[in-house]
Amino acid sequence: MRLGVLDVGSNTVHLLVVDAYRAAHPWPAYSEKSELRLAERIGPDGTLTRAGADALVEAAARARAAALKHGTEDLLAFATSAVRDATNSAEVLQRVRAETEVDLQVLSGEAEAIMTFLAVRRWFGWSAGRLLVLDIGGGSLELAAGIDEEPDLAVSLPLGAGRLTRDWLVGDPPPATRIAKLREHVAEVLDASAPKFEAQPWDRPVATSKTFRTLARLAGSAPSSAGPRVPRQLTATGLHQITAFISRMSSAALAEMDGVSAGRAHQLLAGAVVAEVTMNRLGIDTLDICPWALREGVILRRLDVLTPA
């Protein structure tokens, strides 16, 4: 069957259309993105701004039209941290339904972590042993660990790259004092959850998401043009060097580097800080980079509940 997945993230609205069947590899047929940066469109009162809501409605309408054009039989639409945390979330969701006929469902942070974990497990298989999965989004950091397809432990923390850039990093580049304050904040937020993960040793630490892929590329991993099956890693040493380097660069200069998205360049430093503090706190020397993440997890979960033909 042909499935459409509409992922309303804290940075982008991404439509992915795949040809997929139960127990089969989902094959991408079409993809389009709109960069809205919703995590940066949250007002002082906690609401998603009118401009942000307008942009979301327009993006959802375009995505639905594209999904219909490409023959999707089912459109799975979900929103993550930015919409989830907005104080006017219900109003925004109702507006999207009324104006676009897209039934946008909000995923909890825990559900996000669980489905991302499923995607990583399916990608690496049972031979990976006990997995630890890290995912830095625009609004949150997800962590999950376990030996099965469902993690034993899954948490979501408000440590997304967009959120932290908005709240902590003023200046381009920001002063060293602000970066130091951000490090302290990330460490404090991690403190409550880190011991739970440390109590469950893992065999293979893995990272997903655009932030981790970009950091790995800057540290020397293969470019995206090499394909998804090329092994990619991010080491603690390489990350430390990259973080020190980009902390002195303007976002415009950073955007010119290979593998860095112009729209996300200004968020990369915050993401690097979260990655480095998390790796240090959990004692991770090397992360394997997984090309599958939340969208693939949603697809796989949908296929799992299909009745066999």
What are the SSEs and their pairings?
Blueprint: E1 2-8, E2 12-19, E3 27-35, H1 50-69, E4 74-79, H2 81-85, H3 89-100, E5 105-106, H4 109-124, E6 131-136, E7 141-146, E8 153-157, H5 161-168, H6 176-191, H7 194-198, E9 204-208, H8 210-218, E10 233-235, H9 236-246, H10 251-255, H11 268-282, E11 286-289, H12 294-304
Parallel strand pairs: 1-4, 4-5, 6-9, 9-11
Antiparallel strand pairs: 1-2, 2-3, 6-7, 7-8, 10-11
Question: Can you characterise this structure?
Answer:
This protein has 309 residues and is of the alpha/beta class. The chain is 43% helix and 20% strand. The chain is built from 12 helices and 11 strands. The chain has helices at residues 50-69, 81-85, 89-100, 109-124, 161-168, 176-191, 194-198, 210-218, 236-246, 251-255, 268-282, 294-304; strands spanning 2-8, 12-19, 27-35, 74-79, 105-106, 131-136, 141-146, 153-157, 204-208, 233-235, 286-289. A 6-stranded mixed β-sheet has the order 8-7-6-9-11-10, with helices on both faces. A 5-stranded mixed β-sheet has the order 3-2-1-4-5, with helices on both faces. The model has no long low-confidence stretch (mean pLDDT 95).
What is the count of helical runs? 12
Order of helices and strands: EEEHEHHEHEEEHHHEHEHHHEH
Q: Please state the overall shape, judged from the principal axes of the Cα atoms.
A: globular
What's the mean pLDDT score? 95
Structural class: alpha/beta
The tally of strands reads 11
Rg calc: 19 Å
Quote the beta fraction: 15-25%
Estimate percent helicity.
40-55%
Largest sheet: 6 strands, mixed
C-alpha termini separation = 11 Å
- Give unreliable regions as ranges: none
* Strand neighbour order, sheet with most strands: 8-7-6-9-11-10
